[in-house]
Every structure is written in C-alpha cells, then in structure tokens.
Amino acid sequence: MEREVGLDGLGDLALHIILSKLCPADNVRVSCVSKRLRISASEDSLWAQFCLQDLHLSTPQDHQGNPAPSFKAAYQFWREAFAMYPWPLVLRVKRCWDKLKKWLSNNFPEAEATLRRGASESDIQRLQTLLKVKLPIPTRLLYRFHDGQELTDKEHSARMLGSSLGIIGGYSFYNHLVNVYLLPISQVIVETRGVIRHLGFSSRSNNIVVAASSSYSEKLFFLNCTNGQLYVGTRNLPTDGEMIQCVPNALVRSVHVLHGDCQQDAMLLWLEEHGRRLENGIIKVREEGTVRSISLFPEVPPLCCTAVTNGVQVRASAVFVPEFADLQDDAEKYMFAYSIRLSLLPEGCIINGMTFSSCQLNWRHWIIRANEDIVSDVNGEAVIGKFPLLHPGEDEFVYESCTPLPSSSGSVEGSFTFVPGRSADPKGGPFEVQVARFTLQHPDYVF
After folding, report:
1. Which member of 27, 187, 266, 383 lies 3.0 to 4.6 Å from 230 by CB, making a disulfide possible if both were Cys?
2. Rounded CA gap, 204 and 260, in Å?
3. With contact defined as beta carbons under 8 Å apart, do 226 and 240 qualify?
C-alpha cells in the first residue's frame, strides 16, 4: 500500500517547485502551517520569482524605486503601499507606466527624465478637497506611480516656442505648435481653478485639467471625475465649454469601484493606447535640428501612405486637430493637419532610363474629399512658399498644412510637379509625382 507524503515530507526542490506554483497570498497561508513550510515559503528566490512575474522587478525595490533588503520585503512594501486598491488594477497601471517608460528610455530619455515621483495619498486628498471632486480609481493609481511631468525652468522660459518634452507629443503647422504633457497635481489644481474662473465653468462640473500643451497654442484635456471620461476642448471651449470625448464611452466602466478587476477610466485607457502606438512604431520621435519631440503624425501603414514615382518618395499622413474643431459650424466642423515627407531615393531621379542627381518641386495639386464628395481641388505653386530641391540620400523634406472638413472623415490625394535638376537649370521636362490617397478620420482615441 502506497504511503501518503505530506508537504513536510517532500524534498527541498520538490517543495520549492510546488510553492512556486502558488500565488503569493497562498504562500503566506502555507507558511503558517509549520516551521519548515515557513522557512521554505520565505526563501528569497521564491519571492524573486513573484516580484518578476507580478511586478517585473529584477532587483528588490519599493514602488518609489528605493532599494529593499530582500525580494520578499519588496513585495510586502508594494502590497502595503497600495493596500487600499484592487491588486490587479495596481499591476495593470504599473504595466502601463512600465511600457511608456521603457519606450521613453530607449527613444526619448530626456522626456522620461521629466516624470515626477509618485504622488502621496495626502497629495491626492488635497486635490480632491480643494477641487471638490473624487478622482476615478485608475487615475488615482496613475498619479501614485508618477505625479505628471516636471518641466524645467529652461523649458518654461521657452514657453512661447513650446516645450518639446511632453510625453503625449503633438504637431505643428503654420504658426500653430502643440506639445502635450501630463500635469502634476499642483498644476492640475491651478489650471482647473483658472478654467473655472476665466471660462465660467461651474465648480460643480467635476471636470479637472489633466493634460495641456506646453506651448502658447492652447490645448486642454479634461477628466470628468464623475463618469471617468476624458475630453479635449474645441475652438468653442472659451465661449460655451464645447469639448470632444477622447476615448470610446463603451470602454469606460466601474471608475469608482474598489473591488474586482474591471475598473478602467478614460485616462488609463488613453495612456495604454498611447503606449501601444509608441511601442508599435505608429508614432515616433521627430528631430528638427536640435529639437526632439513625439510627433503624432502616423509613420506606418495604413495610417501613413507611401508612393514612389521616378525615384521620388512621398509619405503622407494626417492627424485630427480637436482644438480647432467647431461642432456648430456645418462647413468647417472638423480640422485635420497633414504631414508630407518628400525624399529622393539613393538611386536618384530616374526618367526614361536616365538618372539625375537632383530634382526640384515647383507645383502642387490637391484633391480633398469629405466622405466621397470633393470639397476642394487646389492647384498652386510651391508648398508653404518653398520649392524643395531633393538629392539622393538626404533627410526628408517635411512640411505640414491643414484643412477643414464638414464631415468626420475624408481623404487627400494629389500630385507634385518636379523638374529633373533644378528649376533654374532643368535637365529635362516636368514630371508628376503621385501623392497616394491618405485618410482624414475622427479617431476613436483623440490625442
């Protein structure tokens, strides 16, 4: 007859394997059974595994990044620091920040350096008391990990030019420059009070300013603390408080529920989606001279379209510009900015088998549609007053412009007319370069 073997009768390796299959909470319970199980369940190698699995920690540290004496102590520090929150939500918020910080560390470390240490519960309570709101649970946790961004005095002194270090990023066209950053709690209080005072918002509206453009071009994001939705102001924000939602309503749920694991407000969903776009290379850092910033113009298909004609490559994409939208204007209800990137491939300009080392733009033709109806057919010289001269292997010539639409979707397509060589010294007749049709679309997520 086979003899039953209890946990105390197992060898150390077998016991370690069994305990590693349990969750941390069950290991704590098992440690109460006997002295041997207490010793085995306290082995730091076991808690190193739990820290790696749950918290993605390879070294023992608390939630503020301070060293901990052991992995078991680190795990305990984390649980105690966030004891009032659903643990699955804590881990989800940590994953969100980890993804953003990993991308920033690899691609934009100077922006990562602006992230502030996490806010305390007393900081959050002060905000709630002064603004008479109750923050959604996911947003509270987001602030516990990082209290927004801290732009340096140098950044603020260059405010008219705009800081380039916002982790949300932005765009520019003509004299409109936007770069959005996350506000720290202290600034949330100041900006929200300013909106209430100057824009006539009710102090009972439950909307607080959580993100804004650091430049003179105003763009404000509001979190509604009652329903958990995120909004951005339109052109009519100063006159009648008009805003557009930034996240699909159907995804926002249980924003004030402390139990379970289904809580998700728009702020968390928005940052998760932003992290996904960065991680997948949909949006990237753009460099203009010594200035680096996150550009919201998409860089990959299908949102970015590419066409090559006679060696000239044209990449084009667009972004919705909510701060210029006017939902009361039937003719120009929505505004879109578009970015055109021109380059000459390394093999040069090739026409009828002949290769030229340069070519120059002198004409453009645009067809702009709202839905499928043509609303604009434009012919004109140059692009933003410039006649770019392209050479093989040089950086792209980039320019941005904008167009209003009466509908939430549309498209742009067209062509550029180039001459081989230079306009002042053409080496052949003019030729057309295609601009592939790219979409203008009010997105599900608005940034």
Report:
1. 266
2. 29
3. no
Q: Reduced to 3 states, what is the DSSP secondary structure of residue 357?
A: coil
CB 87 within 8 A of CB 50: no
CA distance 368 to 278: 29
Query: Which among 168, 173, 416 is positioned nearest to 315, based on CA atoms?
Result: 416
What number of other Cβ atoms are within 10 A of residue 334's Cβ? Answer: 26
pLDDT per position as a tens digit, 239-284: 999 999 999 999 999 999 988 889 999 999 999 999 999 999 999 9
180 contacts: CB under 8 Å, gap ≥ 6: 166, 168, 169, 170, 211, 212, 213, 214, 219, 221, 447
**CB burial readout 380-407, b (16+ within 10 A) else e:** eeebeeeebbbebeeebbbbbbbbbbeb
Q: Which of 239, 269, 232, 271 is nearest to 254 (CA)?
A: 269
Distance CA 49, CA 70 (A): 12
Report the distance separating Cα 378 and Cα 376, nearest Å.
6
424-444: pLDDT as tens digits: 999 999 999 999 999 999 999
Condensed to tens digits (0 to 9), the pLDDT of residues 175-225 reads 999 999 999 999 999 999 999 888 877 767 899 999 999 877 789 999 999
Q: Per the confidence metrics, is the pTM higher than 0.90? A: yes
